[in-house]
Structure formats: structure tokens, C-alpha cells
């Protein structure tokens, strides 16, 4: 496909909507099962087709996500829509297979300081768990992706050595990961760091697809997402409304907001298949349920150009004579 003048159109981006899992896990308010199903259903109606829907972790550690099976049972099953479940061990894999998710995502931290606090296991122990989970999932026909958390920095161990991330990515690829995500769990990364790490990981894992997951803690998340796109990453995580964070990382604020990411991509000519207005409305709806205003700005400001009748007070047309 080409744009006017024969130039090739920008390659599209696949959005992985993580609001129903990563977006809810750090909230003090606990949504009802019905509201979680409604949230995901609204995301589907907004054109989001790959959704991190549930988490199969110990409900005592993350009580906000304790009802995974009930949520999955109530979700719309539409062609082209894929639901992802977070899995950390064999018990979680068994639950994921029984619940009918389309993909399993295994999180492996890049630092022991975070891994022990977040998952109760060292990095090596999580890699061993991945080695056990991946072949079982493959035998059952369930694709496995691996998210490398704290890939850009750790709240406990400080700077994350890039070579550590590269080695984990290499081992994830060897285990059979269909996709590897680089996650800036606490929002410390900057574009130069993203560019360098994406290049090093790609060189290490060959043809394994890459994904990126950014938080906007220090207001670099959207610049990082665009940099990842420029480096050839075609799958990006985001959360409606910008909700999210990690309950095991101090001062970890929300993910980049799906509606704001969509605005950036769409204004740049990058297709996503999602509807900006409907996605922004989902963010507002979720904010009402959680009792807090979304950090996303697209819902407040609206799209551009704004669709208003000519001559409406305050528009360019109505003010033209005043200049």
C-alpha cells in the first residue's frame, strides 16, 4: 500500500491493551467481575483486538485480579480477538489452559532485586520456570510471550545492565518464546536507551518478534514508544486511561495511555485498527469506576481537527474577522 505520490505508507502497529491486567493491579479500588467483563467488552468494541485480560498469579498477592476464570467465562469470543493471561508457573499455565486464553505471557525480571520482591523468585528461578512452562504450552498449542521487566532500570538494583537484558532475551528465544517484550516497569528509560537496547536484543534473538511496554512515570513513555516504532517494533503495550503501575515497585505510576498513543500514531499516519474516540470513552468510563480521573489527555482535549459546525463560537472560522 502506498500514500499519494507513491511513497510507501507507514507500517501499522498492533496495540496490546494491558488495562484489564496491568492497569488494574495497582489500584486500591477492586472492580467487580461484571465491570471487568464490561471493560474488556468496551475495549473490543473500540477496535482493540489483543487484550491482556487476566492474571493467573496468587490471588493473595494481587487480590484485584483474583477472579480470572470468572472474567474469562463472561468475555465475548469474537473472531480476531485474542486474550492474554499472565502466567508465572505450572499452576498458572494449567489455569490458563482451562480458562481458554489465546496466549500466555511470562514475566521475567532483569534484576534479582525486583524479581524476588515481585515474584518471590530469582531471575534464574524464573528462567527455569519458563523452560518448564514453554514446552508444555507449546504441546497444548498455546503461544508464549516473555516480558522482560525492569529492562531499563530497577527501583532496587539501580541501572539494569543491557547485557543482562540481552542474555535473558536470548534464553527466552531459546525456550521457544514467540514474542519478547522489553518493559520499562518504573518509567526511567529514554529514547537513546530504547534505541540501543532494541538493536542489541534484535541482534541476539534473530527473527523473534519484539514488543515494547512503557510507563510514563517521568514523561518519557510516548517518546520511547515512538522511538521503538522507528526501530522497527510493531507491537506496543498501552493501558486505557493511562491506569496502571506495579504494586511491588515504589512510586511506579501508570502505563502510557492507549488513547494518547493512538493519537500519536494516527496523526503520524500509522494505522492501528482501533477507534480513538471510543477508546478515550473507555478510559473515562474506567476512571469513573475507579474513582479517579484518567491521566490520559486525549479524552479531555478531543481529537484534531475538531469536528465542530462552522461558525461555532471559539472556532477559527468564527474568530477569523477578529484578527
UniProtKB/TrEMBL annotation:
Q: Which ranges form a coiled coil?
A: none
Q: Does the keyword section mention Glycoprotein? A: no
* Domain Pyruvate carboxyltransferase stretches: 13-280
Q: Which UniProt keywords apply?
A: Lyase, Metal-binding
Renumbered residue ranges of the record's region Disordered: 296-323
Any matching Pfam family: HMGL-like
Q: Which GO terms describe its molecular function?
A: hydroxymethylglutaryl-CoA lyase activity; metal ion binding
Q: What is this protein called?
A: Hydroxymethylglutaryl-CoA lyase
- Per the UniProt record, the source organism is Allonocardiopsis opalescens
Q: What is the lineage of its organism?
A: Bacteria, Bacillati, Actinomycetota, Actinomycetes, Streptosporangiales
Amino acid at each position: 500500500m502506498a500514500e499519494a505520490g507513491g511513497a510507501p505508507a507507514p507500517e501499522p502497529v498492533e496495540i496490546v491493551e494491558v488495562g484489564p491486567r496491568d492497569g488494574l493491579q495497582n489500584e486500591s479500588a477492586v472492580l467487580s467481575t461484571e465491570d471487568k467483563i464490561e471493560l474488556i467488552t468496551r475495549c473490543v468494541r473500540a477496535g482493540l483486538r489483543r487484550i491482556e485480560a487476566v492474571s493467573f498469579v496468587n490471588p493473595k498477592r494481587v487480590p484485584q485480579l483474583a477472579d480470572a476464570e470468572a472474567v474469562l467465562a463472561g468475555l465475548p469470543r469474537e473472531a480476531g480477538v485474542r486474550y492474554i493471561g499472565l502466567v508465572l508457573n505450572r499452576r498458572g499455565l494449567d489455569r490458563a489452559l482451562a480458562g481458554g486464553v489465546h496466549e500466555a505471557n511470562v514475566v521475567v525480571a532483569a534484576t534479582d532485586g525486583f524479581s524476588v520482591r515481585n515474584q518471590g523468585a530469582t531471575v534464574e528461578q524464573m528462567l527455569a520456570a519458563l523452560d518448564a512452562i514453554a514446552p508444555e504450552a507449546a504441546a497444548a498449542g498455546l503461544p508464549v510471550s516473555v516480558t522482560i521487566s525492569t529492562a531499563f532500570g530497577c527501583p532496587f538494583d539501580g541501572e539494569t545492565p543491557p547485557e543482562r537484558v540481552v542474555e535473558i532475551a536470548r534464553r527466552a528465544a531459546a525456550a521457544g518464546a514467540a514474542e519478547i517484550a522489553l518493559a520499562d516497569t518504573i518509567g526511567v528509560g529514554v529514547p537513546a536507551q530504547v534505541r540501543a537496547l532494541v538493536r542489541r536484543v534484535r541482534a541476539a534473538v534473530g527473527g523473534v518478534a519484539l514488543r515494547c511496554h512503557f510507563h510514563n512515570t517521568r514523561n518519557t513513555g510516548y517518546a520511547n514508544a515512538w522511538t521503538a516504532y522507528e526501530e522497527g517494533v510493531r507491537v506496543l503495550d498501552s493501558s486505557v486511561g493511562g491506569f496502571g503501575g506495579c504494586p511491588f515497585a515504589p512510586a511506579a505510576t501508570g502505563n502510557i495511555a492507549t488513547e494518547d498513543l493512538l493519537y500519536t500514531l494516527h496523526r503520524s499516519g500509522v494505522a492501528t485498527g482501533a477507534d480513538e474516540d471510543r477508546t478515550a470513552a473507555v478510559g473515562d468510563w474506567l476512571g469513573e469506576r475507579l474513582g479517579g480521573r484518567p491521566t490520559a489527555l486525549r479524552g479531555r482535549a478531543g481529537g484534531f481537527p475538531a469536528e465542530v459546525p462552522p461558525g461555532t463560537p471559539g472556532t477559527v472560522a468564527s474568530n477569523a474577522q477578529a484578527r
